[in-house]
Amino acid sequence: MESNKELLNLTGKAAIVTGGAKGIGSAIAYRLAEAGASVLIADIDEEAASKCAQDLNINGWKAISLKVDVSIEGDIDNMINTTKDQFGSVDILVNNAGIYPSKLIKDMSLDDFEKVIHTNLRSVFLSIKKTAEIMKNQGGGKIINVTSIDAIHPSMAGLAHYDASKHGEWGLTKNAALEYAEDKIWINAIAPGGIATPGVAAMSQGASAEQMTEQTDAFLGKIPMHRIGDADEIAKVALFLASDMSSYMTGEQLVVDGGVLLR
Ligand SMILES: NC(=O)c1ccc[n+]([C@@H]2O[C@H](COP(=O)([O-])OP(=O)(O)OC[C@H]3O[C@@H](n4cnc5c(N)ncnc54)[C@H](O)[C@@H]3O)[C@@H](O)[C@H]2O)c1
Fold first, then answer.
1. Right CATH number for 4-196+230-257 from 3.40.50.850, 1.20.810.10, 3.40.50.720, 3.40.50.300?
2. DSSP 8-class letter at 262
3. pLDDT number for residue 204
4. What is the pLDDT, as a whole number, of residue 45?
């Protein structure tokens, strides 16, 4: 039987983390690199991605960055080819990049709707389809999709496009897991609740101090643990799903929300 240390060792594995420059993605890139994986940080924010890769390199870990807009098919091709060229394989794919702009349906244009669907859902279909071919030829791999508690239950009005994308991503996760199990490609999802990230902080930009206190109180009141989560609390679960710790799991969604969905 392997030791805990051996099970969590990702030495020799090549990983892609989309949206890996900030927030949850950056925390996941850190944990995977620390476990020994070579990590490609794929992000639309080129400067932040490069800084993130440098921070990992300073620790002596292997990481490179690439400017990728996951809503563009050619960028996804480039992301996968670069990983294969630079690291020799693609063993772990983390589909994390996502946007959550708030707008009611009555104010939402078709462009607004499609931007969220293309970034959060179409991108996941494309990257699974293209990566799975490589993983199949290698004899297997791990795919982790960062969904949301909104993949299960809406958290607030104004996120119809987001909830459609995340419910879709969860359905896609299950069906892809079914299709690729015989190829030894394990495909699971993590559904975060409220996590402190730059994206969440940007949501309250423009709000007064009073409004922010009101919003925070209302938000914390919904969390049984009475605190917002840290990005590393998602990254630790991603490490579990990327490692042999989760060797008999596929098509599962792990909710990491401080108990929000219990209410
Ligand atoms: N933070 C939360 O509370 C929370 C809750 C549930 C689900 N999530 C999900 O977690 C994921 C990450 O969220 P976060 O809060 O860390 O976001 P964030 O905005 O803090 O970071 C997202 C990263 O993705 C990058 N990105 C955005 N659009 C991109 C694109 N088209 N192509 C490539 N990169 C792109 C950004 O530059 C950024 O580095 C998202 O899928 C989100 O839906 C977050």
1. 3.40.50.720
2. G
3. 80
4. 98
The answer to whether 17 and 96 have CB atoms below 8 angstroms apart is yes
Q: Where are the beta strands (DSSP E) in the chain?
A: 14-18, 38-43, 63-67, 92-95, 141-146, 185-192, 195-196, 229-230, 253-256
The pLDDT score that the predictor gives to residue 205 is 82
Who contacts 111 (Cβ-Cβ below 8 Å, separation ≥6)?
none
What SS3 state is found at 245?
Answer: helix
Ranges under pLDDT 50 in the chain? none
Residue owning the nearest CA to atom 31 of ligand 1:
69
Cβ atoms of 146 and 95 within 8 Å: the answer is yes
Span from the CA of 150 to the centroid of ligand 1 (angstroms): 14
Position 62 scores a pLDDT of: 98
Tell me, what's the pLDDT at 6? 98
**Which residues are identified as catalytic?**
162
- The confidence score (pLDDT) of residue 210 equals 86
Six-digit token string for 238: 């991603």
Residue 119: both structure tokens together: 């970034």
| AA letter at 49 | A
User: How many Å separate Cα 29 from the centre of its chain?
Assistant: 10
Place of tokens 């927030």: 23
223 lines ligand 1 (CB under 6 A): no
User: Looking at the whole model, is its pTM more than 0.90?
Assistant: yes
* CB distance 68 to ligand 1 below 6 Å: yes
